Amino acid sequence: xxxxxxxxxxxxxxxxxxxxxxxxxxxxxxxxxxxxxxxxxxxxxxxxxxxxxxxxxxxxxxxxxxxxxxxxxxxxxxxxxxxxxxxxxxxxxxxxxxxxxxxxxxxxxxxxxxxxxxxxxxxxxxxxxxxxxxxxxxxxxxxxxxxxxxxxxxxxxxxxxxxxxxxxxxxxxxxxxxxxxxxxxxxxxxxxxxxxxxxxxxxxxxxxxxxxxxxxxxxxxxxxxxxxxxxxxxxxxxxxxxxxxxxxxxxxxxxxxxxxxxxxxxxxxxxxxxxxxxxxxxxxxxx
Length: 287
Prior knowledge:
single chain, 5-stranded antiparallel β-sheet, 7 strands, about 15% strand
C-alpha cells in the first residue's frame, strides 16, 4: 500500500496549483467508508488560500453546507458588510433553503505540517486524521441539547446530494477574506433494499463457493447425526420400558403360586371337615 506521506504529498499538489479551488472528498486511504449514510468526510484546506496574504494574521475557516439544488451556486455565505453568516441547521431546514455553518476551525498552515515520518505510528493516526480531515454530520446530540451554544454539526440526510464551501474569516476584523467554490455534489449513501442484493454465485470467487459448500455439507452431516442420536435415544427408552413391564408381570404371577403352595385350598379344607364328621358319627354308633 502507498505510504501515508506519499498520499498526502500527492493530495496537496493539485490544491496548491489549481486556480479554482473547492472542497474535496477525503481520500479512501483516510476514510475507507466515505460517504456514509449520514456523514461526509472532507480534506481540510491545506495550502488552499494565498499564503502571501496570511502573514501575522489569525484566520479561521468556516465550512458551509447546502443541499444540492439549482440555486446553490448563487447562495451567499456573507452579508452586505462582508461578515460571514451564522445560519444554523434548524434555520435552514438542514440546508434545503440556504447554507448553514457546520464547522469552524483554525486555518491549517502549510508550515505547521506534522512530521510525516510519524504517520505510520498507530498511536498517532487519530491525531493526524483529525488534523487533516473534517467530518460533516459527526455530532448526533447537539440538536437534542437545548443549552448547546456551539456550531451544530448534526447528521446529514441519507441518499441526499450536498455541496460544501470553505470560507476564510479574519478573526481580528471578522470579515470574510476569501472563499472557495462550491464543491461538486456529494451524495450520502442509502440502505440497499433486500431485493437489490446480488445472490448470483457468479459474483462470488471460487474460494468462497468451495468454503460455502464444505460448510453446508458439514452442517448436513451434523443434522443427520443429531437426528440419528435422537432416534436411538427414543428406541432405547422404549425397549427399557418393555423390559420393566415384563419383569413386573412375572413378579405379579409368581406371588399367587408361592402363596398357593403354603396355604391349603378351600376344597381340601371342606373334605377334611367331612371326614372328621364321619369319624365322629361312626364312633357314636359303636358306642
